[in-house]
Amino acid sequence: MSEGVSSLPWAAAPAAGNAIGLYAKWTPALDAKIEAAQQHLRNACAAHRDGLVQSSSLGVEDMVITDLISRAGLNVHIATLDTGKLHAETLALLPRIKDRYGLAVEVFKPVAEAVIQFVRKEGEEAMYKSIELRKACCGVRKMEPLSRMLAGRTAWITGLRREQSGARGDVAFDEDDGNGRRKISPLADWTWAEVWAYVQKYEVPYNPLHDQFMPSIGCAPCTRAIAVGEDFRAGRWWWEDSTKECGLHAKS
Fold first, then answer.
1. Cα–Cα separations (whole angstroms), residue 144 to 71, 75, 138, 249
2. Domain boundaries 16-112+144-214, corresponding CATH code
3. Cα(225)–Cα(3) distance, integer angstroms
4. Residues 6+ apart with CB under 8 A from 230
5. Average pLDDT over residues 139-158
6. In the sheet where 174-176 sits, what is the strand order?
7. Which residues, at least 6 apart from 104, have a Cβ–Cβ distance to it below 8 Å?
8. Active site residue: 246, 247, 249, 252, which one?
9. What would the pLDDT profile of 51-81 be if each residue is shown by its tens digit?
10. Which contiguous run of DSSP H or E holds residue 66?
11. DSSP label at 11?
12. Is 246 a catalytic residue?
């Protein structure tokens, strides 16, 4: 496999166009939404200062938020989770963020011994065996590192949007996360078309797997392309009949 290229079979075929061409559409409301999103970010910075972090999945929504932070000149710490199972294309965004914005992203990884023990007991493909084991894998690779990312923080910024799924239909711009922190979602009311219109206008770097019909990108074993008409998050844990959540944004 060449460096920076996914081994996924559907990613090997050329995309029919790209995500910008497929989805971007500037709406009359978008100028106001951009200003409102930056104001949410300014308010969060004023209220939480060093207690604020952008928890970036490196998905397109979070890349837009990083761009908004940079354009507003805000001093916001940015962090991400490297589960050990991410696509090469996802990790390749880290140096691009540094080059484009001059911002270093802090990377939180799972505890190596915990991963070794889990794989030794349950196997490399435990996520396919049951929802419980998939969630246990998420617990080791995502939830524990997230707890370290958020330790000592009073608020975190996410790329959640109401349009992403029914489970996220009531996402607020600023809400309690159930653990005594504020969760800030400045793009809560943005549409998919508006996200891509912003990317197009401001030339925001993004994961090329979005061009391969992957609107929601997680760990490589747990992400596939979606077909026309499928839900936004249908490509996540597609073998399950579940709410398509790993626990990072579960309601308490």
1. 32, 26, 9, 14
2. 3.40.50.620
3. 21
4. none
5. 97
6. 106-108, 77-81, 52-56, 155-157, 182-184, 174-176
7. 78, 98
8. 246
9. 999 999 999 999 999 999 999 999 999 999 9
10. helix 60-72
11. G
12. yes
Per-residue pLDDT, averaged over 167-178, amounts to 86
Over the chain, what is the mean pLDDT? 89
Q: How confident is the model at residue 3 (pLDDT cuts 50, 70, 90)?
A: very low
| Annotated domain spans of the chain | 16-112+144-214
Q: Are 103 and 72 in contact (CB under 8 A)?
A: no
Query: In this structure, what token pair is assigned to residue 55?
Result: 């928890």
pLDDT for the residue numbered 116: 98
45 is in an annotated binding site: no
Task: Count CA within 13 A, CB hemisphere, residue 4.
Answer: 7
The predicted model scores a pTM of: 0.89
CB atoms within 10 A of CB 189: 16
Residue type, 214: M
d(CA 136, CA 246): 9
Compute the distance between CA of residue 95 and CA of residue 63 in angstroms, rounded to an integer: 13
Nearest residue to 161 (alpha-carbon basis) of 150, 152, 173, 149: 173
Identity of the amino acid at 195: V
**What's the rounded mean pLDDT across residues 116-121?**
98
Measured CA to CA, the distance from residue 194 to residue 185 in angstroms comes to 15
93 conformational bin, left if phi > 0, alpha if psi -120 to 50, beta if neither: alpha
**What 3-state class would DSSP assign to 182?**
strand
| Cα distance between residue 96 and residue 178, in whole Å | 33
Tell me if 137 is assigned to a ligand binding site. Answer: yes
**222 annotated ligand binder:** yes
Task: Return the pLDDT at 249.
Answer: 43
